[in-house]
Design a protein that fits this description.
Helices cover 30% and strands 24% of the residues. By secondary structure, it is of the alpha+beta class. The protein folds into two domains: 219 residues, CheC-like (Chemotaxis protein chec, 3-Layer(aba) Sandwich), CATH 3.40.1550; 77 residues, SpoA-like (Surface presentation of antigens (SPOA), Roll). Helix 3 crosses helix 4.
Length: 381
């Protein structure tokens, strides 16, 4: 054999490269049947369709998600698929079904979503994702996955709930993705478009065992073959009749015969001449029917009472100071004279205003409505 020989390190590297190529050639057909793939795809279509509606309402943009494509990958090689910085959203299903999945969003797409959530137009982006931006993305993903869980509740015919998603930024090269414990992970890829701002691919990683659990819920609910078959059992009784006395020769044994007797099931008594009456329905006026047409679901919430509180200011006092208070004592607050007061709905700040006098009563004139940016800032504090 002529030519230079390979060193042991070069041989190991060659085998490692071959193994790596083989790892990426896993086929989903080796783990899921055609019916299971269709069931998982149906789950994805229904849940992602609901998520699209929620995300579109939050971002005030047209959101579209294409039909997902399925593949499988080894858990140890998930990080090698990430060639740029991503935002990882960890979702835990806590009720109805139990399991984890991971949603991967490109960093630039996450910046656009955060900017839209905070009232921007999605064009002027910050160089790095701040804590407030991550909180905005987290809230968007919470609403998105919450809508998906609600759709799955209808599909599975039982309540499905999630915990608030956790979020972090994966650099490049990424850290090991160890939150998903299965060796084989189902990769769900779908195209996401948000107006003219985002046209990208999002990836969802689902452990194989968790995917099979969801598939089992669907097949058991939809497939008649999965439902238990109840067989009708005919009640039978073995009766040993008394032998007919006949003259028999002496020293001859008589064996009683066993007969199978079918006991008929009791039938409900038939009522003679039943009293049949015509059902009369209450007539509703056309005015009442027309008043319900065109009302949105938000109308159902209009009559819910909320406690509105106007807060002039706050201060902290020691117990000793409080015990010294008496008629005529003055408590200094943390706000200056003429500074706007806080208006709260169910103890949540919604607006600011100024105190006015209406005849002999105090009132408050709203001067400013709290912006989404301020609300998100208070969520993170």
């Amino acid at each position: 054999m002529s030519g230079a020989s390979l060193s042991q390190e070069e041989i190991n590297a060659l085998f490692s490269q071959i193994n790596n190529n083989n790892n990426f050639s896993l086929s989903i057909d080796d783990f899921l049947t055609s019916m299971e793939k269709d069931a998982l795809g149906e789950i994805g279509n229904i849940s992602l369709g609901s998520s699209t509606t929620a995300l579109s309402a939050l971002l005030n943009q047209r959101v579209q998600i294409t039909t997902p494509t399925l593949s499988v990958i080894e858990q140890s090689r998930m990080d090698e698929l990430i060639q740029e910085k991503h935002v990882a959203v960890h979702v835990d299903y806590t009720e109805g079904i139990r399991g984890k999945n991971l949603l991967m969003i490109k960093e630039n797409d996450a910046k656009i979503i955060a900017n839209l959530m905070m009232g921007g137009d999605g064009t002027v982006l910050e160089p790095e994702l701040s804590e407030m931006s991550l909180s905005a993305v987290q809230e968007a993903m919470n609403q998105m996955m919450g809508s998906a869980a609600t759709s799955m509740s209808t599909l599975f015919s039982q309540k499905v709930d999630i915990s608030p998603p956790a979020i972090d930024v994966l650099g490049f090269p990424p850290k090991k993705l160890e939150s998903l414990q299965d060796d084989i992970i189902i990769k769900v890829s779908f195209r996401l478009t948000v107006g003219d701002l985002i046209d990208s691919t999002m990836v969802q990683f689902i452990p194989l065992s968790f995917g099979k659990e969801m598939i089992g819920k669907v097949l058991q609910y939809e497939s008649p073959a999965a439902k238990p078959v109840v067989e009708e059992v005919v009640s039978t009784t073995l009766v040993s009749p008394m032998p007919t006395p006949t003259p028999m020769p002496n020293n001859t044994a008589v064996a009683p015969t066993m007969e199978k007797v079918v006991v008929p099931q009791a039938q409900p008594p038939v009522q003679e001449n039943p009293n049949v009456q015509k059902v009369e329905y209450t007539t509703f006026s056309n005015t009442q029917a027309k008043s319900q047409v065109g009302q949105s679901n938000i109308d159902l919430l209009y009559d819910i009472p909320l406690e509105i509180t106007v807060e002039l200011g706050r201060t902290n006092l020691q117990i000793r100071k409080i015990l010294e208070l008496g008629p005529g004592a003055v408590i200094q607050l943390d706000k200056l004279a003429g500074e706007p007061v806080d208006i709260l709905a169910n103890h949540k700040l919604i607006a600011k205003g100024e105190v006015v006098v209406i005849e002999e009563n105090f009132g408050v004139r709203i001067t400013d409505i709290i912006s989404p940016v301020d609300r998100l800032t208070r969520m993170t504090n």
